[in-house]
Structure formats: C-alpha cells, structure tokens
Amino acid sequence: MRLHDLVAPILIKQLIGSDEVHIDSVTADSRNVRPGSLFVALRGYTVDGHDFVRGAVEAGASAVLVEEAFEGLAAPQIIVRDTRAVIAVLASVFYRHPSKSMKVIGVTGTNGKTTTTHLIEAILSDAGHKTGLIGTIKTRIGDREFENANTTPEALELQATFREMLDIGTEYPVMEVSSHAVELNRVAGVDFHTAVYTNLSQDHLDYHNTMEEYRLAKAKFFSRLGNTYEDAADRNKAAIINADDEHAEYFLKATTAQTLTYGIDKEADLRAVNVKIEADGVSYRVLSYAGEETFRLQMTGKFSVYNALAATAAALVQGISLADIKKSLERVSGVNGRFESVQAGQDFAVIVDYSHTPDSLENALKTIREFAKGRVTCIVGCGGDRDRTKRPLMAQIAEQYADLTVITSDNPRTEDPDAILDDMEAGLADVVKSRYVRITDRREAIRYAVERAKADDVILIAGKGHETYQIIGRTKHHFDDREVAAQAIRGELA
Ligand SMILES: CC(=O)N[C@H]1[C@@H](OP(=O)(O)OP(=O)(O)OC[C@H]2O[C@@H](n3ccc(=O)[nH]c3=O)[C@H](O)[C@@H]2O)O[C@H](CO)[C@@H](O)[C@@H]1O[C@H](C)C(=O)N[C@@H](C)C(=O)N[C@H](CCC(=O)O)C(=O)O
Ligand SMILES: Nc1ncnc2c1ncn2[C@@H]1O[C@H](COP(=O)(O)OP(=O)(O)OP(=O)(O)O)[C@@H](O)[C@H]1O
Ligand SMILES: N[C@H](CCC[C@H](N)C(=O)O)C(=O)O
Ligand SMILES: [Mg+2]
C-alpha cells in the first residue's frame, strides 16, 4: 500500500520526505520492524516509542509516524499531534476496514464482560452463525485459539484479528471492550454493530483516577455507536443497557443508536421476574417485547441472570427467537473460572471465581450466602501493580459475608506481597483477629481453608478464576486454583 493512501484519512501536521513509498506492514514495536514497515512511535507508560525511531529506521523502516520531527532521518516522517489517536484509524485502513463487513458485538462494564461475550457467542453459533471471540481468556478465530496479553488488544493487533476473521467468513466477532481500550483508542476505528453495557463499579482507579473519568471512558464507547444508516445491517444497530445500574440513564443519553434495556428490579424492555437462586443454578421468567419464557441456567447468582439478560437482548437484536436463546443459554454449563466448582470427592463445596473487584466479590459472596448450609470461607488477595484503593474494601467485604476470611496473595507482580496484604489488612482494623487469617503463600492459604472445612461448608477462592499462573516479580509461575484445591482436598499438599 502507498504511504500516501494509508495516511489519507488522517490530519497531518507536517510531512518530511516523500509519501510515495510502499508500506507492507505497520507496527508500534521497533522490534518487529522490517523493510517496508511503517513504524508508529507511541508514548507508553514505561518507555517512549520515540526513543526507538532511529533504531527502527536502521532496521529498515520505510517511514515513521511521530509527534516530533527527527533531524537527518533516512526515512520519510509523518508528524501528527497524537500518534495514539491516529494509529487506530491507520490500523483500520491498513486492514481494509474489516469491521465494516461483519457485525461486531462489543461488551463493556466492570464485571461480566467475559461471561456475557461467551453467552452471546454460544447463542449465535447455535443459531448457525460463524462467530469469533476476543477477550480476557482467549481470542478465537475460527478453530484457532490463543491467549492475549490484554483483555482488549491494541488497535493494530485487533484489526489484524478482524481481517483474519473476515477472511474465513466470520459474521460476528464478539469482543470485550475494557475501559483502558476505549481510553487508549484501541477500539477507535471499529465499526460496532451492537454495544452492551453490564455495570460500573470500582476498579482500575489507579488508571482512571476518578469514577467520573472511568465512566466517561465507557460512555465514549456508546457515543461512537450509531449515526450511520446506510444499509439494513446498520439499521438495527443497538445499545443494550442494564436498567438496574445507577448509571443507566447516563449511558442511554450517551448514544444516538437505538436502545434496548434489561433488568430485574426496574422496568425494562427485557425483564426477569421470579428469580430463584440455588446452589447449582438459577431460574427466572423473561418478560419481553419478543415474548415470554422461563429459563433455568446451570450458572447461579443474580449476576448470572444479568449476564444472561444482556446476552438475550444482544441476540434478539440479531433476530434470534427467545425460544432458541433459551435453548442455548440452558445448555451452557459455565464459563472457565467463573463460579466454577471443584469436585474432588469432598463433602463441602469449593468455588473458584474471578472476582477481583469489590463489587464482584460482594456478588459472589452474597450468592453463596443464598444457598450455603454450612460455614463460608473466603480466600482472597489483590493483584500487585493495580488499583490499591480496592484492597481494604475487598478485605472488608470478605469479612462481612464470610465466617472466615483468609487474606493471601493474588498476582503480587513487582510489589512486595506482604505490603499488599498490609493494605488489605488496613480494612480489617476493627475486626477481631479470630475472623480472619493472613497467609501470604496462596497454596498454603488454600490448604489451610480446605483442612478446616466440614460437611456442607462452602469455600470461595476468589480473584484468579481461569488463570493458570501466579506472577511474582516478573516471573509467571504455574498456578491453578482449581488444581491446588483438588490437591489440598486429596491431602497431596501436606
Ligand atoms: C497501561 C497499559 O495499558 N499498558 C499497555 C501498554 O504498555 P506501556 O504503555 O507500558 O508500553 P511501553 O512498554 O511503555 O511501550 C511504549 C511503546 O514503545 C514501544 N517499544 C517498546 C520497547 C522497544 O524496544 N521498542 C518499542 O518500539 C512499544 O511497542 C510501545 O508501542 O502497551 C502494551 C503493548 O501494547 C500493553 O501490553 C500494556 O498493557 C499492560 C500489559 C497492562 O497491564 N494493561 C492493563 C492495565 C490493561 O490494559 N487492562 C485492560 C483491562 C483489564 C480488565 O479486563 O480488567 C485490558 O484491556 O487488558
Ligand atoms: N454481571 C455481573 N455483575 C457483577 N459481578 C459479576 C457479573 N458477572 C460476573 N461477575 C463476577 O465478576 C467476576 C468476573 O466476571 P467476568 O470475567 O465475566 O467479568 P469481566 O468484566 O470480563 O472481568 P475482567 O475485566 O477482569 O476481564 C466473576 O467471576 C463473577 O464473580
Ligand atoms: N484484567 C485484570 C485482571 C486482574 C486479575 C487479578 N488476578 C489480578 O492479577 O489483579 C487486570 O489486569 O487488572
Ligand atoms: Mg474479562
């Protein structure tokens, strides 16, 4: 592709050299530069991509896209105000706008993104559609699956993924859209067909500073939806909003697309009534403009009803019947690491869950309280190099709902594991010591809880869900809560 054509849609401050060169790859990582590459310098959190511009040209870059001019550079330079803002547009142009030829469904919100995307994907593929998936657990393109560094990939990787999906005939990419992704313009060039909002609660305040900023990042996603009504596919573009969430009105206002609401407590286009939560599932009746059905899910908790309602709304918009949606959702046994139960022949319950925010932890524990016959133990930690303000809150929530709380390590990353536990313990200052224990080693914490469990008790192991590793320092060690719990139950950890 000619550089001239590639950069045609962007506002250029200055062009140094010729834009007639040929570009056959675009990258923001100097380590991937080869002859024919356009290197885009991004200012990161750890380093500045501009420091690698000269190196990129030495490695053969055919041109660079930068925010400041470099003297005596042996390659053409395109200078723009904000490279991060234009990279998403470039990525879409370079891969020939694949999102325009598919119906991209994006799910955003603090909790429930992974679960909801999996549910939507299950319904659509049961209905005979070719789907793709992008999110926390994995990306799936046709039969090819791989793990991601981030929940939502950077724009170039995202558009390359869309291109590959389109080339094999995918109709529906279903993806998680994190607030970081919106803020960092990872999804700016994506033509979404359906946008789903789950909820908003505290997380990532290390990054977004205030809840208001965090909410704005999510709102940007909805404000980009709509405004095009060129063909039939555009016409049923929709924003799907959780009516029970306190920010519902805000998101409804943020979009010009058609909207569909879902809820349990408040009036909504899709409403669940008669919600009955049990240990092995939840049942409810959906009242909607598309009819009524009683659902019996294999997943439990009120939050599962919300995720299922969101998925139901997203599927109704695509023209799938409520009866077919019911069949698909009832077939789903659960999502990897989300409220997953560990069975190793014990007479108490062990549940592994990815609750790593105050809100999700509270939901998980409230749900357990609804069916637990015996004592409830909560094993919980907080990730290092992440939002510190959630630490005391998560410890408090665990202590409030559980009979025994074991605070332990999650992924300490580059922080001192004990300093993280100090932050958590600060939330337990008024709590009698017998209600909680502090065990830094996660394996030991799980063993401690399992050894003390009696018939009918419930142990919640929160925070890591599907993760099969623990990051200590910069090293990823193999660690799987489900595996460790089973070993503890079988007495193999002693
Ligand atoms: C805060 C954040 O989002 N950071 C992302 C960012 O890292 P960074 O800003 O530190 O990048 P950097 O290392 O400073 O590099 C800056 C630029 O220089 C380039 N570079 C660097 C070195 C070199 O030799 N040559 C070179 O060209 C890099 O390719 C990059 O373009 O760019 C990286 C490369 O794309 C991302 O992997 C990284 O995500 C990190 C792993 C991360 O932890 N992100 C989290 C906070 C995140 O995004 N989470 C959300 C939500 C999670 C949820 O679901 O709750 C997500 O979507 O995953
Ligand atoms: N709708 C919901 N509301 C509140 N909590 C939820 C909801 N759905 C799931 N949870 C809880 O949050 C945890 C994470 O769920 P899930 O992985 O689906 O969310 P996510 O938004 O993808 O999270 P992440 O941002 O970490 O990728 C679950 O293990 C469960 O405890
Ligand atoms: N996508 C989230 C996952 C957190 C999971 C938890 N186990 C942790 O490590 O904090 C993040 O990177 O903030
Ligand atoms: Mg997720």
From TrEMBL:
A motif (Meso-diaminopimelate recognition motif) lies at residues 410-413. Carboxylation is probably crucial for Mg(2+) binding and, consequently, for the gamma-phosphate positioning of ATP. The modification N6-carboxylysine is found at K218. GO terms for molecular function: UDP-N-acetylmuramoylalanyl-D-glutamate-2,6-diaminopimelate ligase activity. Meso-2,6-diaminopimelate binds at R386, D410, N411, P412, R413, G463, E467. It catalyses: UDP-N-acetyl-alpha-D-muramoyl-L-alanyl-D-glutamate + meso-2,6-diaminopimelate + ATP = UDP-N-acetyl-alpha-D-muramoyl-L-alanyl-gamma-D-glutamyl-meso-2,6-diaminopimelate + ADP + phosphate + H(+). This is UDP-N-acetylmuramoyl-L-alanyl-D-glutamate--2,6-diaminopimelate ligase.
